Amino acid sequence: xxxxxxxKRPAKAPIPKTRKRAxxxxxxxxxxxxxxxxxxxxxxxxxxEIEEAFRRFKGANPEPKGELQHLNSFTLLVAVVxxxxxxxxxxxxxxxxxxxxxxxxxxxxxxxxxxxxxxIKTIGLFRTKAKNVIALSxxxxxxxxxxxxxxxxxxxxxxxVGRKTAxxxxxxxxxxxxxxxxxxxxxxxxxxxxxxGKTPFEVETKLDQVVPAAYKxxxxxxxxxxxxxxxxxxxxxxxxxxxxxxxxWPGKTIT
Length: 255
Hints:
- With 255 residues, the chain is an all-alpha fold.
- Helix content is 53%, strand content 0%.
- The protein is elongated and about 55 Å long.
């Protein structure tokens, strides 16, 4: 019996090559410039330059808002505690489910640490943060009548709450002209020369002294947004910066 010819397998379609995203690299000049800026040695801006910068920030974004999603002062406090060493975007993915179940200190305590931990497990340091959220909620219930206090001292007595967190809550929840210096504001202050300092507290103190009163209420948000989307860490978008002509950073890409 004649053998049947072997059936040819259909040729496999070529697998398209995926385009790799180019990694953003800092140039040696930029690295050196940032190293210099990080220790607070760049020339300090004048009051007139600072006022001009905030005039431009206000013109571009008259009513800046924080990006952490929240329902009230309590959920804002929890969201800020969760955002430590995490991104706002990451926190915003976890908190809707959490806040749907617990939007008050009483409900959070009833929810319990185990359940909170499960709901926020996508956030860094979630075990410690779950413990702090329950502890601060319990303290609010037993010592503050379930209300978020309106003083920095009282806020800083809550578990997991430091100066930066307290300043954010005071600013957003209560309209206080506080400036919470996070990594973005610390970078912008030192890199531009607007407010130089070797520590976040030094930068905060300097900003508190030099930001005109008319702009202090929203200064926190303007500076964070500028650092998050324009004066970014690796490759700042100097070509889009509205204060580039005032900036003292030697690594900027335009003059």
